[in-house]
Amino acid sequence: MKELTKIEEILLLAIWRLKKDAYGVKIRQHVSTVINKDFSYGHLYDALSQLEKKEFVQRELGEVLPNQRGRRKNIYSVTELGFAALRKAREVNEAIWDGIPRFAFNNRGDNE
Question: Are 106 and 22 contacting, i.e. CB atoms less than 8 angstroms apart?
């Protein structure tokens, strides 16, 4: 199975969380809030394209956007392969963090 980059992991989780509202503007807003910095549309659509190529997301046409001359929203959803990749990423993250207490990084990361 193909590995996820961290940003792909974040995007898949955002898409899953947003459900039927998982379209460009909403995904970007959610991710920008979570990572606490601006996430450009270029970066977003490049990463979404990669997720589509890996078959981790699928795209459907949604409703017509107001003031967009008939253009429709692209609604994204997580595929079974995408969920499998998320499960694997979670297992890896949990294995890496296993045994490290949550408070270990409150100050400098040492256990003084």
Answer: no
